[in-house]
Amino acid sequence: MDEGALVLFSGGQDSTTCLAWALARFSRVETIGFDYGQRHRIELDCRARLREGISTLDPAWAARLGEDHMVSLDALGAISDTALTRETAIAFEADGLPNTFVPGRNIVFLTFAAALAYRRDLRRIVGGMCETDFSGYPDCRDDTIKALQVALNLGMDRRFVLDTPLMRIDKAATWALAKETGGQPLVDLIVEDTHTCYLGERGERHDWGYGCGTCPACDLRAKGYWAFAVNKP
Ligand code: ZN
Questions:
Q1: First-to-last C-alpha distance (Å) of the chain
Q2: Is residue 104 part of a domain?
């Protein structure tokens, strides 16, 4: 499709799958990442390696992949007191949300992304939000994203489309989508170079990638991978 896209790209499994999804569809694809004082920077450090790796998978993808934009959002870190930005244990709060929740984070990300997309003349904004997985972040809900799309289009007088290809699928289906989009080489790249672990551990290499193997993020990734691997086409 002859349209430009901006992908919210953190260097994790979900956003890497979204980047491939966008490269398979849109003629020009740029990436945006946010630094808000994450407790560990491993995920951000994976970004350049992944962008390079993904462009070697397909010459058409290499031609479509454009600039990377890194945006500092220190203010978001400053007003968040969560397990991702402070040295506190990951736990579930009384309201059922994990304390890794940064209130409104995706709303802030998408709003900054739209401001950049406006300047770069990119109509599609692609994010890995998903309402199927365990976390139940309210700003990942489809209704939230749809409402935000309306608000951004009214507020910027544009016709942005917020694409969330992972919204209705679970982690096993996310692995399957990667396989479908970029074949085994993309699955291998995601296993090897994306980072998911909340604790920032990179040490041990499991079949599903690197990580501590016990935090909620590793658990989700591993379970999804095994469900995918068992049913692999
Ligand atoms: Zn972990």
A1: 28
A2: yes
